[in-house]
Specification:
- The structure is a single chain.
- The chain has helices at residues 20-33, 44-52, 54-61, 71-79, 90-104, 117-128, 147-160, 173-181, 196-201, 209-213, 217-224, 226-250, and strands at 5-10, 13-16, 37-42, 65-68, 108-112, 134-138, 164-168, 189-192, 256-258.
- 41% of the residues are buried.
- The chain has 12 helices and 9 strands.
- The protein has a 6-stranded parallel beta sheet with strand order 4-3-8-7-5-6, sandwiched between helices. It has a 3-stranded antiparallel beta sheet with strand order 2-1-9, sandwiched between helices.
- By secondary structure, the chain is α/β, with parallel strands linked by helices.
- The longest helix has 25 residues, at 226-250.
- The model is unreliable at 255-259 (pLDDT under 50).
């Protein structure tokens, strides 16, 4: 069994104080042990949603990893006593695990996104990483699935026998989906990566590296999709700054460990 990885409570959400290499090693360990885990790729958005959604916070507490997707969480973790923490950004984790899977033969399944997007993503990744095994793709309806449809989706994924199930449904929908399906899907690892489907498929632009390093990716995304995102960031950014400042002033951190 792998050594437990530390977590730091950021606004009460247990965020894994890890690096990208730590995340890759943890996921490969689960694949080899055939354990069942899900990974929450969480930034300020997910942490703020957890403040008023107890069920979502419980989902994060039950995750195998809660990776610090944005630099604000990395800054917080370091200030709270975990200086080794690095950003584990969804697209970067997806690239790293895809490269590993192409070498080791781990089978990928892409679930989520608009019609045609999972197939476009799979094709692009297979071109970049020759030999990558793709077990399947599926674009679910935007409406809630009926019990019969959901059972069919579960059967379809299980029949494909993936090692990693990539879930691109956006936060918090993907977190709820993974938690509900962990015990029904015979897959070692589910990773909720949201917009990474669009970024790696080439349908949306990523923020420049300098903006990512400075924690300004939200500003880039707001500038590229203002009509969709202005309400989200208009609430999240000031609320996170206020709550994080209060936590740092109080000096509250209770390190946790999880497997």
């Amino acid at each position: 069994m792998n050594a437990p990885l530390p977590r730091v409570p950021i606004l009460g959400v247990p965020v894994s104080a890890i690096t990208l290499d730590d995340a890759v090693m943890a996921v490969e360990g689960w694949i080899q042990a055939r354990e069942r885990h899900y990974v929450c790729i969480t930034g300020a958005h997910g942490v703020i949603e957890c403040q008023t959604d107890r069920a979502l916070r419980a989902i994060h507490e039950g995750a195998g990893l809660v990776t610090p997707d944005g630099m604000p969480l990395v800054f917080m973790a370091r200030r709270l006593g975990f200086p080794r923490t690095g950003r584990v950004y969804g697209p970067d984790l997806m690239r790293a695990l895809t490269a590993l899977s192409a070498r080791k033969g781990y089978r990928q399944y892409y679930f989520g996104g608009a019609s045609g997007l999972p197939e476009q993503l799979a094709g692009r990744l297979q071109a970049q990483f020759p030999g990558l095994p793709v077990a399947g793709t599926f674009s679910p309806p935007f409406r809630p699935s009926s019990p019969e449809e959901d059972a069919e989706i579960v059967a379809r994924i299980n029949a494909a026998r993936p090692d990693i199930l990539w879930v691109g449904l956006s936060t918090p929908k993907q977190e709820y989906w993974m938690a509900r399906h962990r015990d029904r899907l015979e897959v070692p690892v589910m990773v909720g990566v949201g917009a990474a489907f669009d970024f790696l498929a080439g349908t949306k632009r990523q923020a420049p590296a300098w903006m990512q390093r400075r924690g300004l990716e939200w500003a880039f995304r707001l500038g590229t999709e203002p009509r969709r995102l202005w309400r989200r960031y208009g609430r999240i950014v000031p609320e996170f700054i206020l709550r994080a400042s209060l936590q740092l002033l109080a000096g509250t951190t209770r390190p946790r460990r999880s497997f």
